[in-house]
Amino acid sequence: MPSETSQKGYVSVVQSIVTFSKAHNDPEDQPKKPKQRCQWFSGYVENCLQTSDTGQPLIRGEQQQNKPAKYKEKFDPRVTARYDIKALIGRGSFSHVMRVEHRATRQPFAIKMMEVEAPESHGVCASELAVLQRVSHANVIQLIEVFQFPRRVYMVLELATGGELMDRIVSRGHFTEWDAIQALRMVLAAVGYLHTLGITHRDLKPENLLYYHPGADSKLLVTDFGLSNFGRQGCEAAEDLNGADRSWFLRTTCGTPEYLAPEVLMKRPYSCAVDMWALGVIAYIVLSGSMPFEDDSRTRLYRSILMGKYSFHGEPWSSVSSQAKDFIRCLLVLDPSTRLTADQAMHHPWVVTMVASSSMKNLHQCISQNFRQRLSRASSRCPSSTVSSDGGSNREEKRKTQEHPKRQQKTSGLM
Questions:
Q1: What is the pLDDT of residue 381?
Q2: Residue 155 to residue 23: CA distance in whole angstroms
Q3: Per the CB 3.0–4.6 Å rule, which of 309, 316, 368, 373 could disulfide with 363?
């Protein structure tokens, strides 16, 4: 069951939807004064671009143009009555993300405006809201409030400025296994929480792990629930009193190619164990700056994944502890039934002992070099897209690629 805090957050969201929408008979061009009271939570917005210390959004290698006036016209007056629109910080095929300020408190937030007239965009929005309305965790983005109208939905989320996981690793100049554990423990805490609620993320990757603020003590947040699924029971539930299996299995083939678990590629029913496979890939990347499964050919890539074919050759693996390698091996297991759960991963010796004997070895130079080489090699290739049920380039795949214009640069350098 969700926590009391989560239930209160859900009630607040529902109250917000009721307050600012009259179902299908409330046109957006009809002004209405919003209520002044609302409840605030911490969190982050998916598709938000990295920001500098001054709070200005940045794209790697170029400054993002701020053109709030153009998009302010699309905002319902009931939204702008409460929030001052400041800058465009992200855009997709049917959504725009704006940096805003709450007019009363002057607190910065992000608003994701989604067009929901088309069936595909309506479905994506509904799926995302189904998850965000139910979560309340320090390491998971949280919805603050929703303005829902017939044509558009405005999701308000608190703005974070710390940047992506790999950007932080490359820029800091010093990175050890202890630092890797600190980051992965926060991700494991978030994923374990999601799985107990029956939520499978299905698109975990470094681009979707963002820091709340630029400081060294910032928390790490799991973001982007566009492909997530909300099951009927917790994924880690074993059997009920009658001995029946209560796991909630999924069937849709979706995710980012290099992070797909074998059971997804084999089109078998799967559970939240697919997230743990993705965490194994992430751990490999965090400790080396390179990918465990990588190939220009989608066919060869999938074959490597299905065989579990990866290695710990090259640098900095000679400086990485055996416990860290064992942690990755226990996640990149072909059989999902023997793959570590989030709770088991949190209690793995590498995570528990914080690798005292190896924690001070600086891996930054090799990680940074491998990461930048990936960027260079990938600059002339098309970025990896998100696959969907037919494994081809259908509408859902195009949506996920277009939904993250900044990530097309970063994904091509990381995957």
A1: 63
A2: 17
A3: 316
Does residue 10 contact residue 139 with C-beta atoms inside 8 Å?
no
Q: Which residue has the tokens 């260079």?
A: 376
Distance, CA of 50 to CA of 164 (rounded, Å): 7
Measured distance between the N- and C-terminal CA atoms of the chain, rounded to whole angstroms: 36
Cis peptide before 316 (omega within 30 of 0): yes
Q: Which run of H or of E encompasses 366? A: helix 364-378
Higher pLDDT, 394 or 300: 300
Distance CA 218, CA 161 (A): 10
> Which of the four pLDDT bands, split at 50, 70 and 90, describes residue 8?
very low
Instruction: Please give the C-alpha separations between residue 146 and each of 207, 319, 366, 403, in angstroms, as whole numbers.
Output: 25, 48, 44, 20
Query: Which stretches within 266-363 are classed as H helix?
Result: 273-288, 298-307, 322-331, 342-346, 349-353
> Computed from CA positions of residues 215, 48, 221, 388, in that sequence, does the dihedral angle turn out positive or negative?
negative
pLDDT value at residue 224: 85
Residue 51 sits at φ, ψ, to 5 deg, of -120, 155
Q: Residue 92 — left, alpha, or beta (φ > 0 → left; ψ -120 to 50 → alpha)?
A: beta
Q: Check whether 32 has a pLDDT greater than 90.
A: no
Residues 6+ apart with CB under 8 A from 118: 94
Residue 203 annotated to the active site: yes
Residue matched to tokens 């994944």: 305
Averaged pLDDT score across all residues of the chain = 76
Give the global pTM: 0.74
C-alpha span between 39 and 5 (Å, rounded) = 11
Mean pLDDT on 88-94? 80
The dihedral through the CA atoms of 394, 395, 400, 404 has a sign that is positive
Separation CA 98–CA 392 (nearest Å): 31
| H helix intervals, 197-321 | 262-265, 273-288, 298-307
Question: CA–CA separation, 399 vs 124, rounded Å?
Answer: 10
- How far from chain centre, in Å, is Cα 386? 13
**Amino acid, res. 264:** V
Nearest to 342 by CA among 235, 244, 230, 219: 235
Choose the catalytic residue: 203, 224, 275, 295. 203
